[in-house]
Amino acid sequence: METFGKRFHEAVRKRGQLCVGVDPHAALLTRWGLTDDVAGLERFARTVVEALADRVAVVKPQSAFFERFGSRGIGILESTIRQFREAGALVLLDVKRGDIGSTMAAYAAAYLDPASPLCADAITVSPYLGVGSLQPAFDAAAANGGGVFVLALTSNPEGPSVQHAVGAGGKTVAQTVIDEISQLNKGVEPLGSIGLVVGATIGRTGHDLSEVNGPLLAPGLGAQGANASDLRAVFGESLHNVLPSYSREVLTAGPSVAGLRAAADRVQDDVRAALG
């Protein structure tokens, strides 16, 4: 079984370093002329799959925007994940789960076990019950060729109060997370399967990402304020592992399939120019 790190490396080689967030919030559905209900959600998801599934390396559905419609919304999420994967896109399901023991193991089974209808290629998780609490997710990913993206330096303004806090050893909380993930990926070729989430809006923080050897998801681009040119300041010499993530910058070009494709191509060109 190929590891997620290897599949990720191959996907971005073929399709470019781009992730598109699939965030069907109420305002976006309205902008598309759709109703804010299950029917509108289904139409939205079907259109995004048609437009992007065969051309974007990674898509990132935000689970909450499907969950808000209950079981029928989750059913659409299951179908959307399946269709994206069948078309060759890697699906990073944005669920930000984090718990301990059997509960974390259950989350891992829900999203990283091929027997589950919600199985994705990778998920986002929160390490703030301790990186060790995420071990069931790491184990499930290793067993099934999946990936895990761990929150490290997020783009929300509240993040630094926790992530930049300094522990007894002199490291920030974020640097401790970064270093622990770096150890998990050490020596893996071509890339480890445990990634980090590092916001594109954070600027130079002095954190060292050079040893991560895993994919670095960079949300915050486009409508959230960051530009592709900001990536170099944040990631420095680790640019080759960065996965820039856009959502509204692409999705507001809908509901036209051609418009969505053109928007994705435009941000892809911006990313390519910025990353060299």
TrEMBL record:
GO terms for molecular function: orotidine-5'-phosphate decarboxylase activity. Pathway: Pyrimidine metabolism; UMP biosynthesis via de novo pathway; UMP from orotate: step 2/2. Residues 17-263 form the Orotidine 5'-phosphate decarboxylase domain. The active site is at 96 (proton donor). InterPro entries: Aldolase_TIM, OMPdecase_AS, OMPdecase_type-2, OMPdeCOase_dom, RibuloseP-bd_barrel. Keywords: Decarboxylase, Lyase, Pyrimidine biosynthesis. Its EC number is 4.1.1.23. It catalyses: orotidine 5'-phosphate + H(+) = UMP + CO2. Pfam families: OMPdecase. Belongs to the OMP decarboxylase family. Type 2 subfamily. This is Orotidine 5'-phosphate decarboxylase. It comes from Paractinoplanes rishiriensis. The gene is pyrF.
